[in-house]
Amino acid sequence: MRRKLSFILLSAIFFLLIAAGCSDETANEPENGEGESDNVSDEKAAAPELEAMTTEEITLSYASWANHTLNEFLAEKFMEKYPNITVEIVQLEQDGWNDHLTNLASTGDLPDVYWYMGNVDIPIRNGWLGDITAYFESDPESDDILVTMKDAGYFDGEQKLAAPAAYQPYTIYLDENLFNQLNVDMPSADWTYGEMIDLMQEMTVPEQGIYGYNTFTKLVTMAPIVNQDAYGEFGWDGEQYDLTTDWADSMNQHAEYVRSGVHAPFYDTDEAEAAFGDRLLWAASTGRIAMQLDAWWTMGLFAEPEFVDKGMKWVPYPVPQGDNAQSQHKPAFIDFGAISSATEHPREAYELLKFFGWGKDGWTAKLEAFEALENEDGSLMFKHPDGLPLINDEEIWNGLQELLPQSEYVSNFLERVKEPIALGGASHPGFQTFLDEVYFGGEYGDVEAAIINGEVNAYDISQNLTDMINQYREEALEELFW
């Protein structure tokens, strides 16, 4: 497996160097559709065309935890495009999602197209994932997928068993009013990881009760990806993980900032009560936090009166680029979809998966839905689009931007988030098991908490963690594929 991936990576790199005249900058331009290992490069050029869709009357079922009204809207648009296909939306509670899929699969009712949640080992082990390799590699639309998402779903390096279905980027929010209050210039949209770390320290003013940052998303997720031009968490480079450098650096840095008061007090603690007068008050709603490390969906929340009326002006920034990075790789929340291995209509199920996921026709319909769908009281159902496109299509991205606040911050953000990197659980075999059994449930308990509490130093355990996660991956691949 490693020899195969190594050959693929070396071949891709050799091709890029020739095509780009050995220019690192050119080789990493996302518009080129290059810049990472490509399982389908030469084969795809000679691949057969997609087979025709059936003209028979058929029914396909679909399940995801996306907004139900949006799912129904998209289903109607798909049926307009393919009048012979009826789409049935299967509603499941998001809590216990994979258990619901297990129950459906046990009775032969697994939806034709569905999202799975979290641990990719579950659908692989249960044989739920239909092989879409031939369809994907024959599909001209596959060329338009964001460059870092093209190989996602090739879990064994050979078969494409799933595809990115929804994308919500990590987002750093800065309170512009607080920066102005402290007479500190806002950073460039092209800020670097090191600049962000320094700003956290600079924006901490203990005598005014002001903290440099608060976290939902984490430095230990960001740093290895952006600083190592990685293709996954924990420094995944396409062959192995490495926690010995940026993971260890960022974990110790975060621990130091928590202990020294650069990071805001944690929710529901005595420290939070002492600082804010309410232990249950979210730090980002106090007006005393310079940066909130968060997610795309929080942009709409920060526009609410609860924040604006308190004098806050939260503006979005992309996760900063690595200090010496050649890419714009940034961590992202990526939901994955698949077709059922038992579907009677795999060709049509693939088209449905694409329409609800990355396809341009589907995204055209989504933009219409974001702009038009209303609640019963006549208010817009989507005050804020619930994700970003998975294709590098100027028309779609411009259409999305028109639905967002018309600010330079938003424009700059969108220009710099087209190389998303999926989190490990849903995209890497063995990853979630490692987290459960070692990272959050091993000899140190919660590794991150142990480091923050000073019980262990990240550098002392980083090599052991590196060895273990690589072992977990190899064992998972052997169990699931070989």
Automatic annotation (TrEMBL):
Keyword Thylakoid belongs to the record: no
Superkingdom, taxonomy of origin: Bacteria
InterPro entries the UniProt entry points to: Bact_solute-bd_prot1, SBP
Keyword flag Transcription: no
Entries under Pfam families matching the protein: SBP_bac_1
Keywords from the named record: Signal, Sugar transport, Transport
Signal sequence interval, chain numbering: 1-19
Record protein name field: Multiple sugar transport system substrate-binding protein
Native organism: Evansella caseinilytica
